[in-house]
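Possible regression after last week's pipeline update?

I re-ran a chain I had predicted before the update to compare outputs. Posting the input and the new output here so someone can diff against the archived version. Not blocking, just want to make sure nothing changed silently.
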Amino acid sequence: MAPPLRPNAVAFISPQNHPILIRTFEKGDELKYHYVAHTSLDVIEERTNGPTKSNDCYLGLLYAMDDIAAYGYITPLKMKIVLALPLTDSVVRDAEVIMTFKALHLAYYHASSNPFIRLHDTPVGVGSAKWKRFRRKVDEISRAVGGGSVSS
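New output (post-update):
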């Protein structure tokens, strides 16, 4: 049996390519995962604007860098989710990654359904108390998928 996924970071990026939330689960690597999120945007743009467009939200493995594998997901409203997983020798099943993306997408959907939250706030707005429930839900999903604790 394959070990559970252990997400290192999750990034939610707006349709205008502004980071909504970049949540890291390892202390001290925040800048590294900001870089992963921004470089993933180039790959996502290539795949979604190419000659062969797919209706599938899951974009698969975007790229692997050093010790990180970045996976992508784009919602029908063009909101992007990037999941950074540790690069290991074990097999990562697409079904598990897709299930994680769908849970993250649903958490964002529920948070954005709140009529008192402005969707296109700056990342400072995501740090507000109104988004606290969304950040907590992202942490819960990470714990459930990885079977471990969230350190950030």
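Follow-up from reviewer: compared with the archived run. The chain has four helices and five strands. Marking as no regression found.
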